[in-house]
Specification:
CATH class: Alpha Beta
Order of helices and strands: EEHEHEEHEEE
Number of helices: 3
Helix content: 10-25%
Number of strands: 8
Number of domains: 1
Largest sheet: 8 strands, mixed
Distance between the termini: 18 Å
CATH superfamily: P-loop containing nucleotide triphosphate hydrolases
Strand order of the largest sheet: 1-2-8-7-3-6-5-4
Structural class: alpha/beta
Length: about 160
């Protein structure tokens, strides 16, 4: 299914309904602005239960951190996400539980990630969001929701979301 976002992303996954992530559902969104990308993240996160892992990939500047900002908002969080590139992990408190935001861009090994974030990688009470997940695929659970963000024409972003129960 392909949707074009506008009006700050109000249609971002909204029509997919609450069972959008049942089975292997694939959705492709096109966003025009950073705010639309945030709105897409917000709409996805609102549907996700604690214990979910979201694996995000995309080239530099694709909008991964904007998407994560929306995910924190989707869990009713008020903190603004920043890229944890130099710290590997940020934790954001939300009313629905913690959001663990990992950025694997500068990680050197799976062992480094595992020792720094073992608990967060398996957090049953929170949402684990991993940027640059493709760098260490063995750390990503098979049930993870997968998000790929790419540059599209005229400054747009294409966001492909594949979910598994």
């Amino acid at each position: 299914m392909v949707k074009i976002l506008g009006d700050k992303g109000k249609r971002a996954l909204a029509r997919a309904g609450p069972c959008a992530m049942v089975g292997r559902v694939e959705t492709t969104l096109t966003t025009d602005t950073a705010e639309d990308t945030v709105a897409a993240g917000r709409a996805l996160a609102a549907r996700l239960a604690p214990g979910t892992t979201v694996a995000i990939d995309g080239e530099l500047g694709a909008g991964k951190t904007h998407f994560v900002r929306g995910m924190i908002e989707g869990w009713d969080g008020t903190e603004r996400a920043t890229s944890p590139t130099f710290t590997l992990l940020h934790e954001y408190a939300t009313p629905r539980g913690p959001v663990f935001h990992l950025d694997l861009y500068r990680a050197q090994s799976a062992e480094e990630i595992w020792s720094a974030a073992h608990d967060e990688l398996h957090a049953a009470d929170g949402l684990t969001v991993i940027e640059w997940a493709g760098r260490f695929p063995a750390l990503i659970p098979p049930s993870a929701v997968r998000v790929t963000i790419t540059h599209a024409a005229a400054g747009r972003r294409a966001i492909q979301i594949t979910g598994a129960p």
